[in-house]
Design goal:
alpha+beta; Phage tail protein beta-alpha-beta fold; Ribosomal Protein S8, Chain: A, domain 1; 7-stranded antiparallel sheet; 4-stranded antiparallel sheet; 23% helix; 49% strand
Length: 422
């Protein structure tokens, strides 16, 4: 066995004088050279260098060969400990070294003793009244949290009639549950959805600040309330109906007043104006239309029954309130309209033309979302006659003028979500 420990200041005794700042750093550096030496001997040399008392535990054994030149003392100690799978603790002038497995065993013993002390604590019962959360749902959740929020010995039950919780556990866990419930037992934020289902022409839509398409809003349009627009889906052309869906946002407008004014001028027809109140992440639905009866055969018996299918304009909205106060709307819009008649052996059946779209849009509180794209073409026949002469037999047609005019209107849905204060 060959071993030596050389401190850096001794090695530099004949060298030029070092600056005061670096001299202190050199005093913390050492050089080690050991060949197949016991780890306990190397640790003793390190302790002597720092004038520390050394205590080694049972299991500090093994031999090392190393050569370190001018390394910090702390780094040298960590290298030796790592190679020997050891750990150390320092208390004052005493350096204690023992195997890592012994430290792990000590920690496990402390944890076991702490758990034993926890299970030995007396149990008490406490009744907690909930104001907003459902007691049965909270009790079900707490029963899954035994061992974390509650101790394994905890008993949790719910009284739905009084919306109360009965919990039996140690005082510390009961205090934790009470603090947790203060954050959970809060009113669910609600959203009021104001909707207007109207038929309107393009000119009136422009007066409301609505322009479909991908064009970015200009400064003038933003002042008028147009926040931006986007088109969703492609239109499907039919002789009398153009079906598709568009979407745009408008904000800062007195929509109710403007729609009422346009209705008085016969420029818009308000089909429905429902208002719904729903909670965060809860679905609200609106339907407007009719149900079509059809016959259903019962099989070999030959008997038939009447069932109904919906031909309605339907809308489902699920709001999600974001932390910044904005509202994300998950929308499902469907337009089911009576189609052509289909001849069958039992008679005629009426088909249903269906248009549907699902989308998700984020709007600000109070901002209006506009959905459109379903067009209806109405034909208007008019007749002008010259008084008396227009009613003459045979010659009356010479004094009569007939005209056909087409009126194109769009079915538009306005949705305005508004947060309701708790």
């Amino acid at each position: 066995m060959i071993g030596s420990l050389l401190s850096a200041p001794l090695a530099a005794a004949n060298s030029p004088r070092t600056p005061p700042g670096k001299e202190k750093a050199l005093q913390q550096s050492i050089s080690l050279t050991f060949s197949d030496a016991p780890i306990a001997l190397i640790l003793q040399a390190l302790a002597d260098h720092q004038q520390l008392n050394l205590v080694t535990g049972k299991g500090v054994e093994g031999r090392l060969t190393l050569r370190l030149q001018a390394v910090p003392w702390q780094q040298a100690l960590e290298v030796v400990l790592r190679m020997g799978q050891l750990t150390s603790q320092k208390q004052g002038k005493v350096l204690m070294v023992f195997p890592e497995s012994e430290l792990l065993q000590q920690r496990q013993q402390k944890m076991a003793q702490a758990e034993q002390d926890r299970l030995a604590r007396p149990l008490i019962s406490r009744t907690l009244v909930l104001r907003h959360a459902q007691a049965s749902e909270v009790a079900s959740f707490l029963n899954t949290q035994k061992g974390s929020l509650l101790s394994p010995r905890a008993l949790v039950s719910a009284d739905p009639a009084g919306n109360t919780l009965l919990i039996r556990d140690a005082r510390q866990e009961l205090d934790q549950v009470r603090a947790w419930l203060e954050n959970v037992d809060r009113p669910v934020r609600q959203v009021q959805l104001a909707a207007h289902i109207v038929t309107i022409n393009r000119d009136s839509l422009r007066e409301l600040g609505v322009r479909w398409g991908f064009n970015r809003a200009t400064t003038t349009q933003e002042k008028n309330g147009l926040a931006g627009s986007v088109e969703i889906g492609a239109a499907v052309e039919k002789p009398m109906i153009t079906a598709g869906f568009n979407l745009v946002r408008i904000g800062g407008r007195m929509l109710d007043v403007e729609l009422t004014a346009l209705e008085q001028q016969d420029r818009v027809e308000i089909i429905a104006s429902p208002r719904l109140l729903t909670a965060n992440l809860q679905t609200a639905s609106i339907k407007q239309g009719t149900e079509i009866p059809y016959q259903v055969s019962s099989g070999a018996s030959g008997s038939t029954s009447i069932e109904f299918k919906e031909a309605v304009l339907g809308m489902e909205v699920t709001p999600q309130i974001l932390p910044d106060g904005a509202i994300t709307l998950q929308l499902q819009i469907s337009q089911n309209m009576p189609g052509r008649k289909i001849k069958q052996a039992e008679g005629e059946a009426l088909s249903i033309d269906k248009q549907e779209i699902k989308t998700q849009v984020t709007v600000k509180d109070g901002e209006t979302l506009v959905l459109g794209g379903i067009f209806q073409q109405h034909g208007i026949k008019s007749e002008n006659k010259v008084p008396i002469l227009g009613n003459l037999p045979l010659f009356g047609s010479l004094f009569t003028q007939q005209s056909n005019q087409g009126q194109r209107r769009e079915l538009v849905i306005f949705i305005t979500p508004t947060l309701i204060s708790s």
